[in-house]
Automatic annotation (TrEMBL):
Keywords: Hydrolase. This is Alpha/beta hydrolase. It comes from Pseudonocardia alni subsp. carboxydivorans. Pfam families: Abhydrolase_8 (PF06259). The lineage of its organism: Bacteria, Bacillati, Actinomycetota, Actinomycetes, Pseudonocardiales. Residues 489-514 are annotated as: Disordered.
Length: 538
């Protein structure tokens, strides 16, 4: 009835037909929603790698489309149900008006008019009892009621047609093929990637961003804002996958596996909340062999005058984001207090597969494998800056071993390197780290048990028992190493009640190993001054 109903259309209309169509669309909506939920629960228990990432992204996109279509079907059901009710109401008003007048009125259904007439009328004429002579006023009232009812039906008809038209999907654009140049040259460094990206046509950049977010989000040298957009797409997909995985493992009775999935999910939720809070950028997100790789910047590293990169250690991954991010935020706050202009950005760099436990941390292989990725990331920070920038890398625990391996022999874009609670850097002396004299720093708390870890050669020679012999080489906080050593709070030798105001868990074993960022700690103040390029008192 898109042209507007006549009186005959209104009388002959069947509102039940629209109600039945509304019920059909409601059933479609529920079926699509159920299918989306089923897909979310169907994530494989163990599958990693590029194909797994692509499959997870495709599954998340399919879930999104199913839910969008379910919403469209639900709205169609609501529109049709509303229209059925409005037409039924118009018919009711017509009947009530007709019954209220005297017999003998005639309603011509084809012409949509009222008249008085004899007892007999041709087919298609509805006889209403009354005589025009005695009830002229009733005729006027009935005419008005009919006009109002037909008008209401007409308005409902037009509104329903417009609402249903608005639910039609827009014609799908034919995807333009990605140009062969829409991939960086093999082995390109961060500077070359930057040049490649800026040289692409804008349409190619947008298409890559939407069709290959995993590629764009992981490329050092691509602008920070672009990487952030790409990785937020991956973040949504991973959160959906982890929730489904936790539910699946719960049903399978794998409590430990479900708990790991929930911890990873909680870490990504923390990431999302920080991103939603503003002034933060997600620069990398991908599954790893252990805890998951993630790079999150607080503040824009392409516009800040001072940029910190914080490398966490053993067990680091998605599940440790809350504590690691709290340390990054604390360092940034201390640096902003020390920087004249306060222009400081801080990056949580978990861009490697950290050892999952202390036994695995005895092996330097993970640190050696991560060294190239850390160098590439730092190169990207330098390439993204239009002017001079002061770069500092802080390695904590096994993260300091990663930092040492990245810095050995030079080539790491860092003006200052800092080793905190280090089990060794892989270097024999600060001079091997390719950093200017006086810009290699180290601290180890008195009660941090890392300072008493024996060297790897303890069973072969006596050298491992020497005070400076740690698991991965000489202690960078020992005077002989050549770093500038700064003080830390001693920490506690024994566990104590946890202080919720600190990023550290004081009730944990070896709590002193994580206390360097506690409020009021001299190490936190010094870290802030180093990151800000401010003088550090002897």
């Amino acid at each position: 009835m898109s042209a507007g109903p006549a009186l005959g259309d209104l009388v002959a209309a069947d509102p039940g037909a629209w109600l039945r169509r509304a019920g059909t669309w409601d059933g479609v909506s529920r079926a699509l929603s159920d299918r989306a939920a089923e897909l979310e629960r169907s994530a494989p228990e163990s599958w990693s790698g590029a194909d797994a990432d692509a499959a997870a992204l495709a599954r998340a996109e399919q879930v999104r489309r199913l839910r969008a279509d379910a919403g469209t079907a639900s709205r169609a059901a609501q529109v049709l149900g509303t229209h059925a009710g409005e037409v039924l109401d118009a018919q009711r008003r017509l009947v009530v008006a007709a019954l209220a007048v005297h017999p003998q009125f005639v309603v011509d259904l084809e012409r949509g008019t009222l008249c008085a007439g004899p007892a007999a009328h041709p087919p298609g004429v509805w006889r209403l009892p009354a005589t025009v002579a005695r009830f002229g006023a009733d005729l006027v009232r009935l005419s008005t009621a009919v006009a109002d009812a037909v008008g209401a039906a007409t308005r409902s008809d037009h509104a329903t047609a417009a609402a249903l038209d608005a639910l039609r999907p827009a014609p799908a654009a034919v995807p333009r093929p990605v140009a062969p140049a829409a991939a960086p040259p093999a082995g390109a460094d961060a500077g070359a990637v930057r040049s490649w990206w800026t040289g692409l046509p804008g349409a190619d950049r947008e298409q890559l961003l939407h069709t290959r977010p995993g590629l764009v989000g992981g490329l050092d040298g691509v602008p920070v804002a672009v990487r952030d957009r790409a990785n937020r797409v991956l973040l949504d997909a991973e959160l959906s996958r982890l929730r489904a995985r936790a539910a699946l493992l719960d049903r399978a009775g794998d409590t430990a596996g479900a708990d790991r999935a929930r911890r990873a999910s909680a870490g990504l939720e923390t990431t999302r909340r920080r991103l939603d809070g503003g002034d933060a950028y997600l620069l990398r997100l991908e599954r790893g062999d252990t805890g998951g790789r993630l790079v999150l910047a607080v503040g824009d590293p392409e516009r800040a005058a001072h940029v910190l990169t914080h490398v966490p250690g053993t067990t680091a991954g998605w599940g440790t984001v809350p504590g690691d991010l709290a340390r990054v935020e604390a360092t940034r706050a201390a640096a902003r207090a020390a920087a004249p202009d306060g222009a400081v950005a801080a990056v949580l760099w978990t861009g490697y597969d950290a050892p999952p436990d202390l036994l695995a941390a005895a092996d330097p292989a993970a640190a050696r494998a991560a060294a190239g990725d850390l160098r590439s990331f730092q190169d990207g920070l330098r390439a993204g800056q239009a002017g001079p920038v002061h770069l500092t890398v802080v390695g904590h625990s096994y993260g300091s071993t990663v930092l040492g391996n990245a810095a050995r022999g030079g080539g790491l874009a860092a003006d200052d390197v800092v080793f905190v609670g280090s089990p060794g850097t892989g270097a024999g002396h600060a001079s091997e780290l390719g950093t200017a004299p006086g810009h290699v720093w180290a601290t180890t708390a008195r009660h941090d048990p890392i300072g008493r870890v024996p060297g790897v050669e303890v069973f072969a020679t006596s050298r491992g028992l020497a005070p400076t012999g740690l698991l991965h080489g000489p202690d960078p906080a020992a005077p002989a190493f050549g770093a500038r050593v700064f003080g830390s709070a001693p920490g506690s030798a024994l566990p104590r009640p946890d202080d919720p105001a600190t990023p550290n868990d004081e009730s944990a074993f070896a709590a002193a190993h994580g206390g360097y960022w506690d409020p009021g700690s001299p190490s936190l103040s010094t870290l802030g001054r180093i990151v800000a390029g401010a003088p550090v008192p002897p």
